[in-house]
Amino acid sequence: MELDHYFYRINQGLLSACGVWPLLSKRQKIIRRFIFFIIDFSNFPPLIAYAVYNWRDADALSDCVTFIASYSLGIIKISTIIIQDKKIQYLFKQIQHDWSVWSSEPQVQQLEKFAEEGKSLNFIYTVAVCTSASSYTFLTVAPQIYYLFVQRPNGTRESFLSPEEFGIDNEKHFYLILAFNNLSVWINSIIYIIVDSTYFTFVQHACGQLGAVGNRFENIKLISCNGRENNNDSLRFEEIYFCIQRYKKALKFTSLLNDLFSVYFFLIVGISATNLVFASLQTVINLDKFNETVKYGNYGLLLVCLLFLNSFPAQKLMDHSSNISQNIYNSCWYEMPVSLKKSLLFALMRTSRICAINIGKFYVLSMQTFASIVRTTVSLCMLLLSIR
Q1: Residue 15: which residues within 8 A CB-CB, separation 6 or more?
Q2: pLDDT of amino acid 334
Q3: What is residue 208's three-state secondary structure?
Q4: Are the C-beta atoms of 270 and 298 separated by less than 8 Å?
């Protein structure tokens, strides 16, 4: 399966890198998936060992929980695209089919508009994640380069490492562990980009489908209000029938999209909110340590940005879904015969259903949910600080 449109080449490259793109051979899929999964998962044993050795130290445990939650998010993301491989393939095939169905210029422009917005969203997300990973690399590697030319003050270099216990002399194998820490951070960041950019692409295409259907409904008035074709009821009925069929396809696409990401977001939002609490806590605790403040403050800001960027497309999907009813109303329904008015009334009833991405079976992913999560995490952080 090759997507001819340049909007999806980034997705194709990223999914190929982690072994999910369907054109890859079985061997390539296994090897690439194994590499990504094992590097990300290999951080858990040393992190858990560190937590066991320092279980009496609340600050050390809080530090450890932040990293465990971060790598847990990566494991959930990579596991989702591996387990849901067939659904992802089907959605991309549906995208390819939809581009061939819409032949009218205004509707194609709708698809192109939202696909372009998806590319922009992918770029912003990639910049945010790479900036966070780069700042971590800079804060851990730059001091070591500096100490090559300037005498290092007394003290251990272990503070520059992640809270992990490998069972070896950290000072002796410092550079090896530092390299592993940075490799793990970057692999984890790439997994974030791969999975969430795929989510953005799917949601934007769903918005494009709904926008194209709404545009087609409104363009029925061009047929209805044309003097020569005012009696061509069969042509208008075909247009209404076509729009209803495309709307049903859009509903099926969004339903499958919701099935794909519903449990995913239930886990992601829960862990991200917990991680945000501990990242904020570590930022406040280490205000007197520049490196630690920047590291955890930057990571906390990244979590807020990621939650926002995940909620924003879901909100757009809800908005464009609710706009279909207005598009139908904007057609020249008042000049149509009763039979066509009844068809439009049926379509109006069908389009009252709002498309949304659910967080499990409890909440709907939206900007309101995002605001609630941020408020709750800030309150919990303040509570933990007062207890401490």
Answers
A1: 21, 81, 88, 194, 198
A2: 67
A3: helix
A4: no
What's the rounded Cα separation, in Å, for the pair 244 and 31? 44
> pTM to 2 decimals?
0.85
DSSP 4: -
Task: Report DSSP state, residue 361.
Answer: T
Q: Output DSSP code: residue 7.
A: G
- Cβ pair 84, 260 in contact under 8 A: yes
Rounded alpha-carbon distances, angstroms, from residue 141 to 134, 144, 178: 10, 5, 8
User: Nearest to residue 21, comparing CAs of 125, 91, 71?
Assistant: 91
DSSP string, 86-140: HHHHHHHHHHHHHHHH--SHHHHHHHHHHHHHHHHHHHHHHHHHHHHHHHHHHHH
Segment-wise mean pLDDT, segments of 10 residues, the chain, 388 residues: 61 76 77 84 87 78 82 88 85 84 76 84 86 84 73 62 77 83 88 88 89 79 51 69 82 88 88 83 76 78 86 88 78 68 71 80 85 84 71
- The CB density around residue 326, as the number of other CB atoms within 10 Å, is 12
pLDDT recorded at residue 7 = 65
> For the chain, first and last CA: distance in Å?
55
Task: Give the DSSP H or E segment for 364.
Answer: strand 363-364
Q: What is the pLDDT of residue 228?
A: 47
225/331 Cα distance (integer angstroms) = 9
Phi, psi of 364 (to 5 degrees): -105, 130
Q: For residues 139 and 159, what is the distance between their CA atoms, to the nearest angstrom?
A: 11
* Cβ–Cβ < 8 Å for 240, 346: no
Q: Quick one: pLDDT at residue 157?
A: 63
Q: Where are the alpha helices (DSSP H) in 18-103?
A: 26-41, 44-53, 58-83, 85-101
* Residue 97: other Cβ atoms inside 10 A: 10
pLDDT at 163: 78
Return d(Cα 281, Cα 384) in angstroms, integer: 8
